[in-house]
What we know:
Elements: H1 2-13, E1 17-28, E2 31-43, E3 48-52, H2 59-66, E4 74-79, E5 82-83, E6 91-94, H3 106-110, H4 112-116, H5 121-134, H6 150-163, E7 168-172, H7 180-197, E8 200-205, H8 208-214, E9 217-222, E10 227-233, H9 245-263
Parallel strand pairs: 3-8, 3-9, 6-7, 7-8
Antiparallel strand pairs: 1-2, 1-4, 4-5, 9-10
Helix pairs in contact: 5-6, 8-9
Amino acid sequence: MEAIDKIAQSAATHPEITVRGVSKVFSTRSGPVEALSHVDMTVENSRFVCIVGPSGCGKSTLLRMVAGLASCEQGEILFRGAPQHGPCRQIGMVFQEYSLFPWLNVVDNTGIGLEFGGMSKDKREQEARRYLAMVGLEKFALAMPHELSGGMRQRVAIARALTNNPDVLLMDEPFGAIDAFTRIILQKRLLDVWEKSRKTILFVTHSVDEAVYLADEIIVMGTNPGRIVDRFSVDMARPRQRDAPVYASLVTRILALLEQQDTGESA
């Protein structure tokens, strides 16, 4: 009980995620490449934050570092004020690839993390079905992955991450390989899930439109080296209308900023 109280107190007094002066360099055959340079950001509790930027700006690298899957050369990453040195149960991740086990049905794929944690079969199936219902797949609990569309497989991946009940959900271009129509449907479904669970979400995307549709805050990154160039607060009520002038205006501003980075102009 004391440990739970400490976690709750830490969550109340610190941002969920703090990135301070983080830099990352990769060694290549042609020499060192500075993937990230002196990145600073915070993500507050229950916020939906999107990171946008061109290829090579370090978006996915930064997300993997927050997840504890990669280290940084300089700086530090904190989870609720404590240094983040490796993966932890409170931080879940959804990748662009579905990464489902082809020999397991949907409900068993969804509850696999609970099985690794030692939960009984009946209990983990109950939890898995609850989150499958949340993403609209309760009728497909016994289906095999090859029987599902790409969008449905990604919903299973999201349900699997949620079933582990993380406090923070990291999403690395989860809809990037999905057709445009299905992508819009999944964006709506993800917002439904987020409004019910109020998990903190840090979401990487190439799509400015997707970021404006989903996020409370948008972080824009530039390249050479990867760095944060601006932040935008999205003060629009949900559900957002893509044909609204304020929506289009924000998309245009962010696209213009990204174009400046691509041409090497100063912002």
